[in-house]
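Hi, can you check this record?
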Amino acid sequence: LTLVSNHWLMAWMGLEINTLAIIPMMTYPNNMRNTESAIKYFLMQATASMIIMFAIIYNAWMTNQWTLLQVSNEWAATLMTLALAMKLGLAPFHFWVPEVTQGIPLTSGMILLTWQKIAPTSILYQISPSLNMNLLVLLAVSSTLLGGWGGLNQTHLRKILAYSSIAHMGWMTVIVLINPSLTILNLLIYIAATLAIFLCLNLTSITKINALSNLWNKSTPMTITLMIILLSLGGLPPLTGFMPKWLILQELIVYNNITTAMLLAFSALLNLFFYMRIIYTSTLTMFPSNNSSKFQWFHTSPKPTSLIPSMTIISAML
């Protein structure tokens, strides 16, 4: 609904349906943690939706039109940018993302960090010519830096993937005004890699880093798959994840945003560090090395899924 609508009210309605539809999925095994996370998510999304509605009405009052592509009023465009930043989890409105992702099951977390980003990004993409470049760069650089720093001291995989999501949203936001097509490319590659990681973790029921040291005992192919996808998500050159980062840095340099490009490149190293820590735990700490996790002699092989090989191929496409 949000993607195909040309009227602000229809786009807003799509965002609201998107928010309300995921709440029952987040609270499905009914316990306190899930309910708390769902309430946090709902409050944040409802606040952002109210700001979006205020910006829509203010823009319509000042310009007498409800077309999605024209946000000609500067204040309305600024409010819209901040509200979409809240919905996407961009810094400094990023605090809800790790908390909510940590409190819900892996399947809900997968939907939250992939599917839920599509509608707000589509609005950002469509109104990008009206947005303020300085505000976008500030949001993007702070997101990539905080996404990198925040994930360094985490041991829970869901929180690490949440901080990774914040950093990737920063990469998408910084280029939306210069070359919006790169934002879509980055989003598609990020969604493919994140889906594959969550599917791997869901099949093996792993949520902490120290449990990864036994992943090779459960499924050796899964260990190799996870390593390739994480390296791709980190943006190492032979893999697909490097492509959007390279193109974004190239575009920024062409438009003389050298400082922004340097900050983004440095923040990518922070992300790569905690990806490498996951890879080290899952692939390099094999028996008989010393690790504190419980060894599983008897295990059931995870059920094969056709999605993981296809996602791995996408992640290692280059």
